[in-house]
Amino acid sequence: MSFTPDLIAELKVLALFNLDSSQEGIKVHNTATQDVIAAAKRLYEKKLTDQPDGGYLTSLGHDAAEHAQQLLTILQVGEPA
After folding, report:
1. Which of 14, 26, 38, 44 could cross-link with 65 by S-S, CB 3.0 to 4.6 Å?
2. What is the pLDDT of residues 26-81, one digit of tens each?
3. Is residue 59 assigned to a domain?
4. How far is CA 23 from the centre of its chain?
5. Tell me, what's the pLDDT at 62?
6. Could you tell me which of 3, 22, 9, 4 has the C-alpha nearest to residue 61?
7. What is the pTM of this model?
8. Is position 68 within any domain?
């Protein structure tokens, strides 16, 4: 398995969620790039969010976002600022 552009776009959207609050979702506006709009829709189709334009994370989506954000943190350690 490899990281496709679609998967990377989905990871980027998952990284936007604030995991400290279950009452805070995101809204992907129609002015966003087509990559982001399509990624948000795919996350909804995969049942990771409750709306095709973002919304709130489902339980599975929260787990996915948590893992995605942890991976980013691990990979960014030691990167130049």
Report:
1. 14
2. 999 999 999 999 999 999 999 999 999 999 999 999 999 999 999 999 999 877 76
3. yes
4. 16
5. 97
6. 22
7. 0.90
8. yes
The amino acid occupying position 74 is: I
Beta bridge partner(s), residue 57? 49
Is 81 a member of any domain? Answer: no
The two three-digit tokens of residue 44, written as one number: 């909804």
Q: Which residue range(s) make up the domain with 72?
A: 5-76
For 1-81, list the strands marked E by DSSP. Answer: 26-27, 49-51, 54-57
Q: Is residue 60 part of a domain?
A: yes
Strand (E) or helix (H) holding 64: helix 59-76
Residue 26 φ then ψ, to 5°: -130, 160
Bridge partners of 27, per DSSP, are 54
Domain count, the chain: 1
Q: Are 5 and 32 in contact (CB under 8 A)?
A: no
